[in-house]
Structures are given as structure tokens and as C-alpha cells.
Amino acid sequence: MNGAENLIRTLVDNGVDTCFANPGTSEMHFVAALDHVPGMRSILCLFEGVVTGAADGYARMTGKPACTLLHLGPGLANGLANLHNARRAGVPLLNIVGDHASYHLELDAPLTSDIAGFASPVSGWIRHTNSAHTVAQDAADGIAAALEGQIATLILAADTAWSESSSTALPVEKKPGSIVADSTIARTRTALQSGEPCAILLNGQATSQASLEIVGKISKKTGARILADTFVTRLSRGAGCVDVERIPYFAESAIEMLAPIKHLILVSSKAPVAFFAYPGIESVLAAPECNIIEFAQPSHNIPEALLQLADAVSASGVSPETVSLELPELPTGALNGESIGQSLAHFMPDNVIVVNEAITSGMMLPPITRATRKHDWLDTMGGAIGQGMPCATGAAIACPDRKVISLQADGSAMYTVQALWTQARENLDVVTVIFANNRYAILQIELMRVGAENPGRNAMDMLDIGRPNINWVKIAEGMGVEASRATTSAEFNRLLEYAISRKGPMLIEAVV
Amino acid sequence: MNGAENLIRTLVDNGVDTCFANPGTSEMHFVAALDHVPGMRSILCLFEGVVTGAADGYARMTGKPACTLLHLGPGLANGLANLHNARRAGVPLLNIVGDHASYHLELDAPLTSDIAGFASPVSGWIRHTNSAHTVAQDAADGIAAALEGQIATLILAADTAWSESSSTALPVEKKPGSIVADSTIARTRTALQSGEPCAILLNGQATSQASLEIVGKISKKTGARILADTFVTRLSRGAGCVDVERIPYFAESAIEMLAPIKHLILVSSKAPVAFFAYPGIESVLAAPECNIIEFAQPSHNIPEALLQLADAVSASGVSPETVSLELPELPTGALNGESIGQSLAHFMPDNVIVVNEAITSGMMLPPITRATRKHDWLDTMGGAIGQGMPCATGAAIACPDRKVISLQADGSAMYTVQALWTQARENLDVVTVIFANNRYAILQIELMRVGAENPGRNAMDMLDIGRPNINWVKIAEGMGVEASRATTSAEFNRLLEYAISRKGPMLIEAVV
Q1: Which string of b and e fits B37-53 if b means at least 16 CB within 10 Å?
Q2: Together in a domain, B11 and B55
Q3: Which end of chain A is more exposed for a tag (fewer CB within 10 A), N or C?
């Protein structure tokens, strides 16, 4: 057994059985080992941003890490933006980054770079594995680090991969989440029972269906509002789920929403701040006098903490309010974000996974789809665009029996458009809706909001991705994905119904 | 005048008048300033790898830096692979990376990241400009740093961009290259006159037509062979140019080529090493007993140093050998790397710029095009694929009166396929030839060469980018670029002749 084989064996033995890969020469022994060690499924992506975004989506749906396989520093670099997003999502993820043989590094060959330097801003754990004797334990340590909800990066020297290796590692045990202190529970109870306006702000594990049910009990008992961040890692919503209010994207609206709240209880979330700074607008969104309670962080045992809190406010026996199914009529007339939302809400099948990177066009989608059939909703977490289509790809690999709907702004879609090819190769059950408005519409809004006055032709050209318009049908077909274009609601309804009725990838270019 | 306007004014005043851009909210004041300060041309790219690769191509053809405009850490991260390549090319390049307003940073908003950390592995110079009072001098210092042949990264806080700014900077003066020591010239002369086999290994500025003519004189006088690295920044070649031998890519062949050489004289190059390590093969390519002389580094005044050396060996009055025009007949029959090379050599117009990222399919192209009309040849320098099409884009912006031919492997093309859109928007005169073999052919070779034995189905799947085959005609048309497919030499000849005869971007999918 060589180092690469021992690495894969260790990964598989510890439940890491899915690899998103874009290998190069220095990873050839890992690639060869895929046939020598059973149990690892490797999925080829044609760009590393797809690799890392898919690993994020996979982790959100399975709760366990996929590994990536990346080629040296530049391969890792191409995946960094979606690793930034994955870091913000707090998902477990293990990068395997190949490196030159250790004796080759000092020669400074063209592809030599500071891999750990590239990895550092996104990784909670980094290790060079420079010996076949340590590769198994290095891999196990990497998995353990990833399971803490962070990016672990293992840099695998080529000679480690090809050298004889027989060492083993102790099995990885996932640490249980820590317990919330009694004093924190007491303080939170006091706030909830104060009679003053309270809100519970959720993200991460706290927006699972199970957690939401407990929060729903607490809310019904105490009157606390249930909020979620503007962008959520994975939110259970729709009919039968406990409803949450989302904090608006624009700072002014968020400040207005949060203004009345006297106690804001954070569960796997942070004190809300504006996405960007704007001249003359506060960056901190809660009112200055708001009492912010950090109830539980992602590293806590969230369901257990919520159960304790429910108990503390005597809500355990309460039945929470849930959303009743209410499907909109099919829209007619012009196609726009609102009509697309109605059509989605009408047709979305039960248990669908929605991956949202629709940006400006998608701002209406959460309220419109609030009372449709039960589904999971996944947002881009770090704000780095180009995460949606890879995330949908990874979610589909994770959940082969569930339909995935990928709601995608056109500008953002372009960053990691190669994801479509992997969806075609793996015949993934993903319906992609491209909101084709031919512009960076969010930037046209933001340009005014930051006070950049009197934009001229040169400025507006930088926000306009028309001239030429992108033909998404051709691009999708070029990557092997069936595609069609809708310019009216009637056309969109027909295409969406068809896309949902069949299995396999399809793209709808929705001209809005 | 605000900080963004002062920044652009300083850039333009110092000759940096071209910006490759993919902006976001934190760069909106820079974007608005494009209309308030005259003289900056900004070119929108739909992915940051295109931005940075285009800036590389632009710098190679103009000798001066373009600036990039990148959105926060993730925007920079997406451009890092081609910044790695640009670093290896030793080109001047100035990144402008927007950052949150300084007071917003501590709030750790979703897009906050360690921008300097991302920049560090590729940048020779990094500065945060956190005050509108220093932005002009910061920009001038960045340009001066870039002009030393390195990547300079200026991190521009949003509040620096929007605050009032009236400061100015002293004009940037480009430092002249340093002079090679007399002792080095004497030592080199001794080697050249030793009667033992000598070779002069060139790259960077030493492969310009003017430098090559001097090297040609030295070669004719002393019998030294003229070599260039496997990959060159910009090589003048074809009819009327001094001929050079290229070091082969595969280590075994390179070792064989270099074995007889007793004195290897490096001019803007480094002692040659294998691209990758292979079990049982030397990584250092020159013979152990070879005398390696570092004659001149990129920071030297290369033409001046070569003139001194020519003088020292009494070669100044010699007429160098040059290549005579010899065009191949048009190929017939099957389409493959060799026949495409013949067709190219036949049709390439005078003074064309060839950007080569054809990888395996392109290995035959340099010898076949050796005696065609005079042209410049640009390779990917750092080995990070996805540089070719962006580089061609930047070269075409730099040289609007010259045709650009972009020779592109299909696997590599996928990484930065968005470059085609910018070629369409700017109506750039670029003919892209996609060598569509539907596989990572180089990796199929490398898999065997690194000794990874008995590859099975899983391994081979990772090297196969068919299933589905990529339809490059549709992808190009989807981005607004005219495209057609050739499956025979006759079809390719006809398409290439047509593409060269017209102005504007066109893509030929060559099925090989």
C-alpha cells in the first residue's frame, strides 16, 4: 500500500467517502488509488471553484465532510472563493492539496507556490504530510478538525503519495457539541420572560426542522419573534414548518426591522451587521440599547441547548405554530422575479432542496415561497458569488433521491458555469433557473446607495453584462445540459412543470 | 476629488491607463470615478481569472502594467492562479483590491477576509491604503513596485475611495536595469571561448527580437547553442528572427538535450528543472558537471548586458543567422496536432501574436511553425492552466492592430472560458483554436510517468472530460463569439483562412 492508498483507506474508514476532484500530475497516485481502495466515490469537476462549492453543498446536506482533491497552490487558489463561503457556512470540509515531492520543492519549479499561504485565510487546520509514515494519522486529524465545522487542508507531497505506507490511525470520533452554561440559560429565560420585545435569531443547525420546532414552542410560550439571518446555511421551511422572519439585505430595512427588539437571542448566529458599509448608515443593525445574548454558538449542542431553554420557560409541552400549505395560482403575463416565485411555489415538489443565488431577482422569492410544500433552503454564506451552481451540484450528490432547484442570477452563474458539466456527467436531478437580466443589477442599486453620484457611460458599462447578451441555452447545451428559454410566465410555467416532472439536469433561462 | 478619483488620476498620470475589472459594491466609487477622471480604459471581465490573465497578456505586449480591479478577498482569490502565472512571467501588474470601509472591518461582515493573506503568495508588494490623504502616493509606490517586474497589490478601503482627497504623488520613474558585473562578463567570455560545448539559455526580455539578434551574433562567433526555456514569456520567432532551441517538457528528453553542454549561460532564466518530480528521474536537468553561469537576471539591463558580452567576444560586427521563410503545404486528411500546426504555419499572417496553452496537442506546434512569418509566441509561465484565453484577451487589448491566435487545450479552456465574452464585447481580433480531444491528455501521459500502475475505470474517469463531450461551438456562441467546428484538415484550413481574413473574435473547435 502506498501513501495515497493509505490516505484513501483512512478517509473511507472514517466516513469520508465522497471526493470532488480536479487533479493534476502531482495527484496522480491519489487518482490511481481510487481503483485500489474500495469505497471512495470521486466526482470530476472542470474547475476548482466547482469542487469546493460542491463540497460545501454536500456538507450542508449530509453534515459530514467531503474531501476535495486540488492540484498544487493554483488549484487550491481557484477554489478559495467557495472555501471562503464554506468557512462562513461553518461546514466540515477536508481539502487534499497535492504538492511537489519534498525534494523537488527547493528547486522552485514553475508550479511551486506557498500552498499553506493560500490556504491560511480560509482554513482552521493546515498540515503538510511529508511522510508516508504519518499520512494515516494526518488524514484522521484532518477529518477530526473538519468535523468541528471548519475547513481542514492537508497538503500531500507527491513522494508521500507514492511511498510505501502501512501506518494506521485511531478512528476519528466526532466531539459532541458543548453544553450551554446554566447562567446563560438563566439570563436568556429572564429576557424571554421580561415582557419586553424579544427575538431569537437563528442560523446553522438552529434552522433545522427539529431545532425550529423547539424554537417554535419557545416563541409560542413567550411571544418572542423568530428571526433568521439574511442568508442561511440550511433552513427547513414551507408547510408544516415553523415560520421565521428573515433579516432584510439592505441595512436601512434591517435596522427598521430590528429597532423594536429589546433582547436579541443569538443561536448559532452573530450580532447582525450590514453586508457593506454605506456613508451615513450604521453598520451595526440592532438598536444600540438592544440587549444581545449569545445563547449558543455553532460549537454547542444546539438541539440540546434549545430543549433546555424550552424547559426553562416551561414551553416543552406547547405545540408550535406551523405554516399551512397555501399554493399560489399560476402566474400569467410578464416574466419577473415575482411571477417566477409564484410558479416555483406552485410546482415545487415536497422535500425539494432550493439553492439560492438569485441575488436581486431573488429578493421576492422567500416571501412568495413561504407556504409552499416543505423544503430546505440554502444560501451563499460568505457573499462570494459563484457558489450556487456548485452547491446545487454537491447537494444533489448528497441527496440523490431529492430534487434540487438552483435559483441563479446570470452574473453570478458565470463564475462557476462549469458546474453544469458535472451535473450532466453525473446525471444529477438539478433544475437550474437562470434569472437573465443581463446586468449586475445589485451593483446598479449599490452604486447609488454608496453615494457614487452621476454615473456615466463608463461606470454603467461595468455593471452591464449585456452587449453581448449571454445565451444560457447554448452554454448549457454546450456542457451537455438540456435547456430552454422562457420569456413569458406561460412559457416558464410549462418549462418548470416539465423540468420538475423529469429526472436529470435541466436549465431554464428566464428572461427577466 | 475623492480618493478613487485621485487614485485613477495618479494611475493615468503615470501611464497606467488600462484596467481589467470585475467590481463589486466596495469598488463602486472607483467605477463611478471612471467617468470623472479622463484617460482610464476599463474592460469588464465576467470572472477574475480573466481579469488577471488579461493583465498578464497586456503587460507582456506593452512592457507596462495594467491595473486590475477586484472585489475584496474572494475576488482576488479567483484571480490568484493567473497572478501566480504572472509572477512567474515576471510581468509588471498592479492589483487594486477593494476592501470594506476601515471601521466596518472589525464587524467581520460575511465578505470580510484576510486580503493581504490571499495576496501574499503572489505579490512582491502589498499595501493597505486606509487614508484618502495617502492614496496618490500609495498608488505611485505600487506602480513603481510593479515596474520592477512583479505583482503589486494595493488594498483600497471603501472609505478611502469615497473620502475627499487632494494629495498628489511624485511622478514614478522606472528604474533602469542594473549592470552586469565585469567579472561576470569575463567569466562568461572565458566559457564561450573555452572550446567546450556552450549554450545560452534565454527567457523574459532576452527573447525579444533585439536581444536575440545580439545573442545570434555571439552564437555565430563562438558556436554556443541558443536555447529557450520550455515555456517563454514572449519569444520573437519565425522568418527573419534568430532561431532558438526549446528545452523539451519531459524531463528525460530535456536531460538528454542538455547532457553534452559544459557551460550553460543563463540570461533572464534559471537553471532548468523538471516541471514535476518523477520517481527515479533527476529533477535537475543539466548534467551534474555542467558549469552554470547566472549571466543576467530579469532585473538587469538585458540588451545592454548582451551588447557588452558580444563586444567581449568580438561578435559585435557579426551578422547573425536568421530563419528563412518556409511555408508548409496545406495539410489534407485527418485533423491532429501536426496538421493543425501545418495549417497555422501556412496561414499565420505577419506579426501575429500566438498565445499557446495547447498542452499535449500543442507539443508539435513550435517546430512546425518555426519558419513561418515573423510572430511573437507567448506561453503560460507558471503552469496554472486557464491562462491562455485571458492572456490572448489582454494581448489583443494591448495591440489592437495585430491579430492574436489563441491555441487552447479544451481542458484548460474551461477554467477561464468567460474570456470569450470579453473578446466579444470588445470585438477583439482573436482567433481561438480549441484542440478538442475530450480528455486531460497530459494527465493520461503523466499517470504512467509517475509510476501509478494499472489505472482502472475510476482513475481514467478523472482524466476524461468527455461524457458529455463539450460543445465548444455552442459555448462560444453562448458568449457572443462566432464559432465553427472542424473535423478534417480541409475543414480546418477553410475555417482558419476565413477567421484570419476577417476582424473580430472567432473560435474554431478542432476535433483531434
Answers
A1: beebebbbbbbbbbbbb
A2: yes
A3: N
Q: Does B71 lie in the same domain as B19?
A: yes
Residue of A nearest to B471 (CA): A478
Residue B176 maps to a domain = no
Can you tell me the mean pLDDT for A488-496? Answer: 98
| B198 and B137 inside one domain | no
Tell me which chain A residues have a C-beta less than 8 angstroms from the C-beta of B117. Answer: 117, 120-121
Q: Is B168 inside any structural domain?
A: no
Give me the mean pLDDT over the A13-37 stretch: 96
Q: Where residue A474 falls among pLDDT bands split at 50, 70, 90?
A: very high
In a domain? residue B174: no
| Per-residue pLDDT tens over the stretch B346-394 | 999 999 999 999 999 889 999 999 999 999 999 999 999 999 999 999 9
What's A227's domain CATH number?
3.40.50.1220
Q: Do A275 and B111 touch (CB under 8 A)?
A: yes
Among A162, A190, A223, the domain-final residue is A162
Query: What is the distance between the alpha carbons of residues A256 and A277, in angstroms, rounded to a whole number?
Result: 17
pTM of the model: 0.98
* Shared domain check, B211 and B302: yes
Let me know whether B196 and B128 are in one domain.
no
CA B43 to chain centre: 19
Is 80 exceeded by the pLDDT of residue B452? Answer: no
CB distance B128 to B107 below 8 Å: no
Query: Domains in chain B: how many in total?
Result: 3
Q: What cell was used for B80?
A: 490568484
pLDDT at A89 (0 to 100): 98
CB within 8 Å of chain A, chain B residues 350-369: none
Nearest residue on chain B to A24, judged by CA atoms?
B443
Q: Does A466 touch chain B (CB under 8 A)?
A: no
Query: Per-residue pLDDT for A453 more than 80?
Result: no
Asked if the model's pLDDT at residue B273 lies above 80, the reply is yes
CA A58 – CA A403 distance, rounded (Å): 14
- The reply to whether B408 and B285 lie within a common domain is no
pLDDT at A154: 98
Claim to verify: residue B68 and residue B38 sit in the same structural domain:
yes
* Structural domain contains residue B317: no
Dihedral (Cα; A343, A347, A349, A355), 10-degree rounding:
-20
Chain-chain contact of B452 with A25 (C-beta, under 8 angstroms)? no
- With the CA atoms of B22, B28, B29 and B34 taken in that order, what torsion angle do they form, in degrees rounded to the nearest 10? 50
What residues in B contact A32, CB-CB < 8 Å? Answer: 447, 452-455, 459
The boundaries of the domain holding residue B23 are 3-162
Residues 6+ apart with CB under 8 A from A494: A486
Q: Which CATH number does the domain housing residue A75 bear? A: 3.40.50.970
Q: Which of A100, A134, A162 is the last residue of a domain?
A: A162
Tell whether A144 and A16 lie within a shared domain: yes
Residues 222-251, chain B: which have Cβ within 8 Å of A?
231
For residue range A350-401, list pLDDT tens digits in order.
999 999 999 998 889 999 999 999 999 999 999 999 999 999 999 999 999 9
